[in-house]
Amino acid sequence: GLDSATIARALEPFDQIVEWVEEVGGAGLEQARETHPDLVRDALDLLASGRVPRDPMLPQDPEAQLALFLGPWYHAQVTLDAHSILRTVRVPTLALTGSLDTINYPEQNLPAIREALESAGNPDVTTMVVPDLNHVFQTARTGSMMEYGMLEESFSVEALELITDWIIERFGS
After folding, report:
1. What is the pTM of this model?
2. CB contact set of 121 (below 8 Å; sequence gap of 6+)
């Protein structure tokens, strides 16, 4: 329900972080201090400014956050071309997501996953949205990352049953 200008302003810091991640190329914070000192200074200033909402799943210290963002794992997450990878998959594939997934929105991701797999000639693709589950397949109220650690459930029994049934249907018990 927000207007596009408000959304664009909210996304500016994240767009800047992605630019830095791509520029440093996963080399890490210490290497970036040598090769991109202005970037490191600007990034630390932005992270300390409070313009980037605090994520309870990330380190809270700006330097520790930046070390994560500039490292190889985060770089791989930002630059991954999932579509190209999915186009190589030719085995039966089950893609599940929770209706409350606020990381990978079901209405955007599942159709794209299905399209990539089917366009590659994969004859057996199943996609499902599981009601009331978050990104990590816990029964949730909001789907917010802040909720993950407060929920007692580690992994939804319903999701496990769907996965089990799908496997048995294709490969037997």
Report:
1. 0.76
2. 90
Residue that the structure tokens 């929770």 belong to = 98
HEC string of 26-67? Answer: CCCHHHHHHHCHHHHHHHHHHHHHCCCCCCCCCCCCHHHHHH
Other beta carbons less than 10 A from residue 93's beta carbon: 17
Q: Give the type of residue at 142.
A: T
What is the per-residue pLDDT across 131-172, written as a single tens digit (0 to 9) for each?
A: 999 999 999 999 988 899 899 999 999 999 999 999 999 999
For residue 99, which of 141, 140, 145, 132 has the smallest C-alpha distance?
Answer: 132
- The helix (run of H) or strand (run of E) holding residue 8 is helix 4-24
Q: Which tens digits make up the pLDDT trace of 41-70? A: 999 999 999 888 777 778 889 999 999 999
Structure tokens at 23: 């520029």
Tell me the C-alpha distance between 106 and 98, whole Å: 7
Q: Which two tokens stand for residue 110?
A: 């599942």
